[in-house]
Amino acid sequence: YYPPYMHPPYAGAFGYPGPPYHPPTQPGHAQTFGGQPIGLPGEPPSASLSPSVTMSHKVTLSNFCIKYFISDTDQAKLATLKYRPGNHAVETLEEKEWCEVGQFSKLGWQSFLTAHRKFCMAIKAGTW
Question: In this model, does residue 111 exceed pLDDT 90?
Answer without folding.
Answer: yes
